[in-house]
From TrEMBL:
Coiled-coil regions listed: none
Protein name (Swiss-Prot/TrEMBL): Chemotaxis protein methyltransferase
Residues the record lists as binding S-adenosyl-L-methionine: 83, 85, 89, 127, 153, 209-210, 226-227
Statement: the UniProt record of this protein carries the keyword S-adenosyl-L-methionine: yes
GO molecular function, one term: protein-glutamate O-methyltransferase activity
Reactions this protein catalyses: L-glutamyl-[protein] + S-adenosyl-L-methionine = [protein]-L-glutamate 5-O-methyl ester + S-adenosyl-L-homocysteine
Entry keywords, A to Z: Methyltransferase, S-adenosyl-L-methionine, Transferase
Biological processes per GO annotation: methylation
Length: 286
């Protein structure tokens, strides 16, 4: 059977190409791709073969590792990241935010100090917008002060979705009813919902690879880094905790995903305080 030009459906990735792609994903983004993920990698990169006009995975691999393929490496990483996210995912963190953190932040803001929250690995924006909704509903006064939520991700394509702030009915179903009514606007034509301007106003998005430099100035009161380091190996995870500690104020908070933990080597820098919630131990320099 002959294959028509651009038909990549029957192409199979060879071991050598998979190994080269796995090495690049690890070096560029920290992503660990065990051999068992070969079929997933193959199907996620199929569209990149089409986009770049490469006839098979071997040629794609040669292209993406060459100097001419530098730009394509970003698209490749984008295709390999897992972007699943939900509004108010792991809702116990938003309970802590509302009950324990917001009162402290409000006091700080009333004293004229800035409040900064970082959603590291924010994907399509549900996490930073959930934080913004939580602040708005718990302390409307707080959001009129110097408050910003920074959402960062390695994947420029997913950040475009985050900026657009448009979600399906199924996606917004995770937002508690009252907040959904107050903060989401229905576009009757498309049946899609958009996060309203008051919630968007205190959220900013930037492209940032957690493995590289973090150019932001100052420290954060709270960091959400949830369901991101799970894709990294132990060594990469261990290298991040001291960096996060440097970026959190003393007694500030960091929230992780349900199957993530701070490595033992960094536990002197943090104190557990709830399910996958930690506070930055005061006066403990990394
Ligand atoms: C599964 S999503 C988690 C989204 C959100 N934090 C949540 O819990 O719903 C993981 C995100 O981490 C991002 N990511 C993966 N590697 C990264 C890296 N090296 N630097 C920054 N972001 C990364 C991916 O692009 C993806 O959007």
């Amino acid at each position: 059977m002959t294959r028509s030009a651009g038909d990549t459906s029957a192409l199979v990735m060879d071991d050598k190409s998979f190994a080269a792609i796995a090495t690049m994903a690890k070096d560029e983004a920290g992503l660990v791709l065990p051999e068992g993920k070969m079929t997933m990698v193959q199907s996620r990169l199929r569209k990149r073969l089409l986009a770049t006009g490469q006839p098979d995975y071997e040629s794609y691999c040669r292209f993406v590792t060459s100097p001419a393929g530098e730009n394509e490496r970003r698209y490749m990483i984008s295709a390999l990241t897992t972007n699943v996210s939900h509004f108010f995912r792991e809702s116990h963190h938003f309970d802590i935010l509302r009950d324990k953190v917001v009162p402290v932040l409000l006091q700080k803001a009333r004293n004229g100090q800035r409040v900064r929250i970082w959603s590291a690995g924010c994907s399509s924006g549900q996490e930073p917008y959930s934080i913004s909704m939580c602040l708005h509903s718990a302390a409307p006064e707080l959001v009129s002060k110097d408050v910003l939520i920074l959402g960062t991700d390695i994947d420029p394509a997913i950040l475009e979705k985050a900026e657009a702030a448009v979600y399906s009915e199924q996606q917004v179903s995770g937002i508690p009813g009252e907040m959904r009514n107050s903060y989401m606007e229905l576009d009757r034509g498309s049946g899609q919902y958009r996060v309203n301007s008051a919630i968007r106003k205190i959220v900013r998005f930037r492209e940032l690879n957690l493995l590289r430099d973090w150019p932001m100035k100052g420290q954060f009161d709270v960091i959400f880094c949830r369901n991101v380091v799970i894709y990294f190996d132990a060594q990469t995870q261990a290298s991040l905790w001291p960096r996060f500690r440097q970026r959190i104020i003393d007694n500030g908070w960091i929230f992780l995903g349900h199957s993530e933990r701070i490595s033992d080597s960094a536990m002197r820098l943090f104190e557990p305080n709830g399910m996958t919630a930690y506070r930055a131990a005061a006066n403990k320099a990394p």
